[in-house]
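Deliverable D2.4 — example input (structure tokens):
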């Protein structure tokens, strides 16, 4: 019988994870394949074919666009292509910038902030700008903050700039004119000139990428978009050709977009994979009865941490990718270089360090047997017996002897026993992860002890007990198939596009506000129509501040007609949110006027989320499948359980190890893991 399936594919640094949901039967299939860093599309295709083979045995080298047993194959992809391009400082060698005459040094001036505070200002060296001075071109013309033309656009200078870029091989160009958020006409005329004079160039306009004020952030965000656009277009075109069909891509804001649309706004994908993980974990936590949670996505290269509040991940527009500020809506995620492949090394002072450098997928940890020579976090787990001598249910055997030799050699250099060296590596990695959790909680005014932690990713559950101890967490939730939660998250999200317009006013006219919201909703509707959605949902919000403040507070804005009562309701939400965030507000003080800054609309095309089935109850005591030597506080023969053999209500008391296809949960002495009705393992300390 023909069926409709949806497939989520998340490409990570070490493994490519894939989940298939059969919408007719509700069946969920998960699997993994090694990533292929040299060409991520190879790993993507291998993952799709593997999961289709597991579903119905037809996953070989087939054209997925051809008629087959499925009526629909919908594919959603979480990709790190754009992120890696920025983190590795690639893609900026042929990047050019066009700005308003007189503002050529905007990238050099930047902002006055110094990382780690002004105590670091003496030592800090400003990093190179994203575009060097000689590739910055100025064009005459000016509009004011209300969008009124003050000086006409200088087409002669525009032509000169376009021809210079063409003659010097600059093929990716960002355009950011002063106050183009209020009137984009001059930027659009610049694009016309570039299209005519330099047709091979890829062009990004700030009025398309980020139509709000603050020219430095708008300039860099636009240039980042231009920098990643060529590689993303090639990657998307390659995948579409090999698939024989279109697909969708996860965005940083928690929505998805068709690949044909993403190529026009690739910057929206810079946190694609981590965003999917946070959303998948939010759904899992919500089904388990937890409206708030910390999400910890441990991979091979890094660990991504986010916070779920009232069932939704926190959002921000103050994100950075590498050294570049990217002022686009994105899930608020902190990333730390503490994954399974993080390398242990000795500092010049003779102390043990872990990360952020990673062995990645190739050559990988020593135990992979692919030529790796540096000890990693995974090697420490293997030496201590906390993971089995293989990965993916036996598909990838591990070289335990090589890992042991590596740990012993490093321990000898440090003057430690091998056990102390290996546990030290894991302790440092756990503290690195705990620091990321503190950044996303304590530094945001949240008490980490108020939240359970959802630990997922291939390496996420490995340090769950350690993090409970370090942070005093209530519990850790380890979902089924934790290594595939990000891929599962890809199948839980709606299509979502964000639109913004700056409108600075202390006494805005409701008619003016209503007109802007109408225009933004029309833009959102057009995009959703192109995506094929008949049902449209619009979420309004606004950025407000007290007059004289430099930064704003975002609050949700109600639906319905925009009138005086509507504006008063938004202002009241601002007062309440400001007081919650900063401990004070000026609700009853007329000396502090409320200033409106940005109006926002999210256009949402809703999808049907996969249902998480209840697990059958297990009345009997769970039975281990084997025992092996594991080191916790000392070496001891330890029971090992298969997660597939545990039912709802099963209790595993440490010391123990719970293994499954894509991950392992070491249950330390003094901890208990209990399976809930939906297959999640709830880990708590008995101390």
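Example output (designed residues):
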């Amino acid at each position: 019988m023909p069926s409709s399936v949806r497939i989520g594919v998340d490409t990570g640094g070490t493994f490519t994870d894939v989940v298939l949901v059969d919408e007719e039967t509700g069946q969920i299939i998960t699997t993994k394949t090694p990533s292929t860093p040299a060409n991520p599309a190879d790993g993507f295709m291998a993952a799709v074919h593997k999961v289709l083979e597991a579903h119905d045995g037809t996953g070989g080298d087939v054209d997925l666009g051809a008629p087959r047993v499925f009526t629909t194959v919908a594919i959603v992809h979480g990709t790190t292509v754009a992120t890696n391009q920025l983190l590795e400082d690639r893609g900026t060698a042929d990047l050019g910038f066009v700005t308003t005459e007189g503002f050529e040094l905007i990238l050099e001036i930047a902002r006055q902030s110094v990382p780690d505070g002004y105590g670091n200002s003496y030592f800090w060296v400003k990093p190179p700008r994203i575009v060097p001075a000689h590739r910055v071109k100025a064009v005459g013309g000016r509009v004011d903050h209300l969008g009124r033309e003050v000086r006409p656009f200088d087409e002669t200078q525009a032509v000169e700039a376009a021809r210079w870029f063409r003659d010097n091989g600059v093929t990716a160009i960002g355009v950011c004119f002063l106050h183009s958020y209020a009137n984009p006409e001059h930027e659009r005329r610049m694009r016309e000139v570039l299209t005519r004079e330099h047709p091979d160039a890829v062009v990004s306009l700030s009025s398309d990428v980020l139509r709000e004020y603050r020219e430095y952030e708008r300039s860099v965000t636009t240039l980042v978009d231009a920098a990643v656009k060529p590689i993303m277009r090639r990657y998307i075109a390659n995948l579409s050709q090999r698939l024989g069909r279109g697909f969708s891509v996860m965005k940083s804001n928690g929505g998805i977009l068709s690949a044909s649309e993403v190529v026009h706004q690739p910057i929206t994908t810079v946190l694609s994979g981590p965003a999917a993980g946070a959303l998948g974990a939010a759904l899992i936590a919500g089904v388990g009865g937890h409206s708030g949670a910390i999400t910890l996505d441990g991979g091979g290269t890094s660990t991504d941490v986010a916070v779920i509040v009232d069932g939704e991940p926190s959002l921000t527009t103050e994100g950075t990718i590498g050294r570049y500020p990217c002022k686009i809506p994105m899930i608020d995620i902190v990333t730390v270089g503490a994954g399974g492949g993080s390398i242990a090394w000795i500092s010049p002072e003779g102390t043990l360090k872990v990360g952020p450098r990673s062995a990645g997928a190739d050559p990988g940890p020593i135990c992979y047997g692919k030529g790796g020579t540096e000890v990693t976090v995974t090697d420490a787990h293997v030496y201590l017996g906390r993971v089995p001598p293989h990965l993916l249910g036996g598909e990838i055997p591990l070289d335990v002897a090589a890992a042991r030799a590596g740990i012993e050699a490093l321990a000898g250099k440090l003057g430690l026993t091998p056990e102390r060296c290996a546990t030290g590596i894991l302790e440092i990695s756990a503290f690195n992860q705990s620091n990321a959790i503190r950044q996303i909680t304590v530094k945001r005014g949240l008490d980490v002890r108020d939240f359970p932690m959802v630990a997922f990713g291939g390496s996420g559950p490995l340090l769950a007990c350690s993090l409970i101890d370090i942070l005093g967490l209530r519990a850790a939730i380890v979902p089924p198939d934790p290594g595939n939660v990000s891929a599962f998250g890809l199948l839980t999200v709606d299509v979502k596009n964000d639109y913004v317009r700056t409108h600075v006013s202390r006494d805005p006219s409701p008619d003016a506000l209503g007109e802007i919201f109408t225009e933004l909703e029309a833009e959102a509707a057009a995009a959703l129509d192109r995506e094929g959605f008949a049902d449209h949902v619009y979420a309004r919000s606004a950025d407000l501040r007290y007059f004289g403040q430099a930064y704003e507070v975002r609050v949700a804005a109600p639906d319905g007609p925009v009138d005086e009562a509507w504006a008063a309701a938004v202002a009241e939400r601002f007062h309440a949110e400001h007081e919650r965030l900063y401990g004070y507000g000026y609700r009853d003080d007329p000396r502090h006027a409320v200033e409106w800054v940005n109006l926002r609309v999210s256009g949402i095309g809703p999808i049907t989320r996969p249902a998480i089935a209840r697990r059958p109850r297990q009345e009997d005591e769970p039975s281990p499948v084997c025992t092996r030597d594991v080191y916790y506080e000392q070496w001891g023969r330890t029971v090992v359980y298969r997660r597939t053999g545990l039912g709802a209500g099963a209790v595993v008391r440490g010391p123990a190890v719970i293994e499954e296809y894509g991950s392992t949960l070491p249950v330390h002495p003094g901890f208990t893991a209990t399976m809930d009705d939906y297959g999640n393992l709830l880990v708590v300390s008995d101390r």
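The radius of gyration is 26 Å.
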